[in-house]
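Regression test case RT-17, inverse folding.

Input:
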């Protein structure tokens, strides 16, 4: 099959070397032919609009608020990533807030989706970063009480940003093989721990601006040219992997974590995204392709959504991939707890 490169004016997304079992077009068509349930995701998964359309999943848009008003995260349909992040660069004192989806809105969506009698599986934005998943569970219970014949499964994806996109692709692929909604729920319940993600930020400023870290820490980090490398733990919450002096060192730290945790299954894609930092994302992809067995692997490229981008700021670069089990990466307190229990 010829290389498939998809591009839109709004997202400028690319899917490199799309072939064989990870062709999302084929997966999406098979899912529709053998559909046993509806699959719903949400925009903090940083879904590329083209990929979401091909998969045939419904994407629930989260919202964000700037001084100009409230906007829906529409997968870069109404504004470009560059325009959004350039706005942040030019207005460093700007406060951008995000809001969880309300139970009422979830009720509306779930009632729409169960109308044709098919069960629903919702892969929701991690509870480690948002309360939205709790609202979804409340809404699902309310809808099933009102419609006892309906089945709605709500799963915390535990993996934010583009890692959630990788999980959804594989869930759709399993659905295309005939898995029921309940079977998909249990499959994803375990599979979500095997999606790894690492990223770095150009500045700590926006984490400080949003109250995620003390402003003084953000200021000191900026003066020392400190670039954090971050990931997420088994609860889906952000975790700090290390602090690097300079951008290149941070990118190399991401590359090293990729080497140590990559699963080497070339039938599964790798995802790279940035917050309007194409050159660094290009560098990361080029380095990954130099790794043994990664020369022809599928690399999906996209942009960090405004919902996540509003908290991390322009310049974020991230990679997500299928790899080792995140549950095996114990924190210090977990190690102590195991020792106390004799595990």
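Golden output:
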């Amino acid at each position: 099959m010829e290389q498939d490169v998809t591009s839109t004016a709004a997202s400028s997304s690319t899917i490199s070397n799309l072939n064989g079992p990870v062709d999302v077009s084929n997966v999406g068509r098979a899912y529709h032919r053998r559909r046993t349930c509806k699959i719903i995701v949400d925009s903090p998964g940083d879904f590329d609009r083209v990929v979401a359309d091909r998969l045939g999943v419904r994407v629930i848009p989260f919202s964000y608020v700037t001084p100009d008003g409230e906007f829906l995260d529409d997968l870069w349909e109404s504004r470009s990533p560059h325009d959004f992040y350039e706005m942040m660069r030019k207005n460093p004192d700007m406060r951008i807030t995000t809001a969880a989806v309300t139970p009422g809105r979830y009720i509306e969506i779930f009632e729409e989706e169960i109308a044709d009698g098919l069960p629903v599986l919702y892969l929701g934005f991690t509870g480690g970063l948002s309360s939205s998943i709790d609202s979804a569970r409340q809404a699902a219970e309310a809808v099933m009480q009102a419609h006892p014949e309906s089945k709605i499964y709500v799963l915390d994806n535990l993996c934010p940003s583009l890692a959630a996109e990788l999980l959804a692709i594989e869930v759709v692929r399993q659905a295309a093989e005939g898995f029921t909604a309940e079977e998909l729920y249990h499959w994803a319940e375990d599979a979500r721990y095997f999606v790894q993600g690492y990223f770095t930020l150009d500045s700590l400023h926006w984490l400080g601006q949003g109250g995620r870290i003390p402003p003084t820490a953000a200021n000191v980090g900026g003066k020392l040219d400190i670039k954090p490398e971050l990931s997420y733990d088994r609860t889906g919450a952000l975790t700090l992997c290390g602090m690097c002096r300079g951008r290149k060192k941070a990118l190399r730290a991401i590359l090293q974590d990729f080497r140590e945790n990559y699963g080497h299954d070339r039938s599964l894609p790798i995802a790279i995204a940035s917050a309007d930092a194409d050159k660094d994302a290009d560098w990361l992809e080029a380095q990954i392709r130099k790794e043994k067995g990664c020369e022809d692997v599928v690399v999906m490229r996209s942009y960090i959504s405004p919902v996540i981008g509003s908290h991390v700021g322009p310049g974020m670069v991230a990679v997500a991939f299928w790899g080792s089990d995140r549950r095996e990466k114990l924190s210090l307190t977990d190690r102590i707890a195991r020792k106390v229990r004799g595990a």
